[in-house]
Amino acid sequence: MSDFFQSFINNFLNFFNWEVLSTTLSDPVSWGIIGTLVILEGLLSADNALVLAVMVKHLPKEQQKKALFYGLLGAYIFRFIAIGVGTFLVQITWIKVLGGAYLLWIAISNLFFKKKEEEGEVQNKGLSFWRTVLAVEVMDIAFSVDSVLAAFGVSDQVWVLFLGGIIGVLMMRGVAQVFLKLIDKIPELEKAAFILIIIIGLKMIAGAFGVHISHVLFFSTLIVIFGGTIVLSLLRKKDKQESAN
């Protein structure tokens, strides 16, 4: 039992290990994975930023910024804990299999069974400042769960996961409109993101049984999926315009 807790603590200590951080920052593969996580976060969570904006809309302008900041801080604390715990637990075979299966369920349910949500479904309930902060914290954590789990399927390096997560959340908050406009112009990108999650889920399950997919193959697949999606979308639009003329 003492060995278990020692291993658990050592996993968290990687967050404060300069050698681990410098190795991460100097490795091009790590930055490729971080970029992948940022793109996934942006595509899958852009609309979440708008949900949070609606939740704080009833507060005065200055308090809106504070409530969103506290919610962001809570999301980072949650990611710190979840990544520290998760990178330790995900080494266990059956947890890897369950995690991969959950990712497959998320992706398949969104691709084939998700019902269209009505706009304006999230209503302003006029909560007090601290109750609003609590609601934003809970929503931030709920939004983070799927992203963090998907990240475990890509890497097991704490700083890679944490940097990908914090940059992704900042991107979600800062340029949510950009991602929403991109998805509006190329709606197929959202489906492409879920297809990538299916691949990540299969990668996680395969890893549980000792089958490891190389970074080259993973990044090549990523480029083919998103590049192919953009090209096909542009060709479809061109065909529609030609048919209309």
TrEMBL record:
<feature type="transmembrane region" description="Helical">
    <location>
        <begin position="94"/>
        <end position="113"/>
    </location>
</feature>
<keyword id="KW-0812">Transmembrane</keyword>
<protein>
    <submittedName>
        <fullName>TerC family protein</fullName>
    </submittedName>
</protein>
<feature type="transmembrane region" description="Helical">
    <location>
        <begin position="31"/>
        <end position="55"/>
    </location>
</feature>
<feature type="transmembrane region" description="Helical">
    <location>
        <begin position="158"/>
        <end position="180"/>
    </location>
</feature>
<feature type="transmembrane region" description="Helical">
    <location>
        <begin position="192"/>
        <end position="211"/>
    </location>
</feature>
<dbReference type="InterPro" id="IPR005496">
    <property type="entry name" value="Integral_membrane_TerC"/>
</dbReference>
<keyword id="KW-0472">Membrane</keyword>
<dbReference type="InterPro" id="IPR022493">
    <property type="entry name" value="CHP03716_TM_YkoY"/>
</dbReference>
<feature type="transmembrane region" description="Helical">
    <location>
        <begin position="67"/>
        <end position="88"/>
    </location>
</feature>
<feature type="transmembrane region" description="Helical">
    <location>
        <begin position="217"/>
        <end position="235"/>
    </location>
</feature>
<dbReference type="Pfam" id="PF03741">
    <property type="entry name" value="TerC"/>
</dbReference>
<keyword id="KW-1133">Transmembrane helix</keyword>
<comment type="similarity">
    <text>Belongs to the TerC family.</text>
</comment>
